[in-house]
Design goal:
- This protein has about 140 residues and is mainly beta.
- It has a single domain, classed as Jelly Rolls.
- Helix content is about 5%, strand content about 45%.
- The protein contains 1 helix and 12 strands, in the order E-E-E-E-E-E-E-E-E-E-E-E-H.
- The strands form 3 sheets. A 5-stranded antiparallel β-sheet has the order 1-9-6-11-4, with no helix packed on it.
- The longest helix is centred in the C-terminal third of the chain and has 8 residues.
- The two termini are about 15 Å apart.
- The model has no long low-confidence stretch (mean pLDDT about 100).
- The structure holds thymidine-5'-diphosphate.
- Thymidine-5'-diphosphate binds next to strand 4 and strand 5.
């Protein structure tokens, strides 16, 4: 699976009452969702992540507040600011990801294509760099 990190803009159903966003598998989320988790109450000086996944696909959405997600894959290093519930970050393939600068009100919701499996993680940056060579 070729590594891919891209921002997806979701359609917003807004009216005088406020806003509603509906996400469907196979639509805005281009995989079957098998797990949802969310990260909140993170101290702004406490980065998280620092790993890559071998097979997992994910959609990250800051449903409240903001967070910066740094991604490295192939020869690319890119930072994404997630600061709106109407935008998601789609991550597929071998990507080293770090989350920084969580705002106090940040709730980072993550939709994932697989159940939690520690064996899918690469937590050693040097191992990632070695695996990543095939995408450079
Ligand atoms: P961790 O991988 O350290 O989080 P992050 O990538 O944000 O730094 O996960 C923290 C703990 O939560 C760890 O004990 C594993 C557990 N966990 C689950 O049980 N299920 C999950 O889906 C996730 C993402 C983590």
């Amino acid at each position: 699976m070729k590594p891919r990190a891209e921002i997806v803009q979701f359609p917003v159903h807004g009216d005088s009452r406020g806003s509603l966003i509906a996400l469907e598998c196979g639509g805005d989320i281009p995989f079957e969702v098998r797990r949802v988790y969310y990260i909140y109450g993170t101290r702004s000086d406490m980065p998280r992540g620092f790993h890559a996944h071998k097979h997992l696909k994910q959609m990250l959405i800051a449903v409240s507040g903001s967070v910066t997600v740094s991604c490295e894959f192939g020869a690319t290093k890119e930072r994404f600011l997630l600061d709106s519930p109407s935008r998601g970050l789609l991550l597929e393939g071998l990507i080293w990801r770090e989350m920084h600068d969580f705002s106090p009100d940040c709730v980072l919701m993550v939709f994932a294509s697989e159940h939690y499996r520690e064996e899918d993680y690469i937590r050693d940056y040097q191992v990632f760099k070695q695996e990543n060579l095939s995408w450079i």
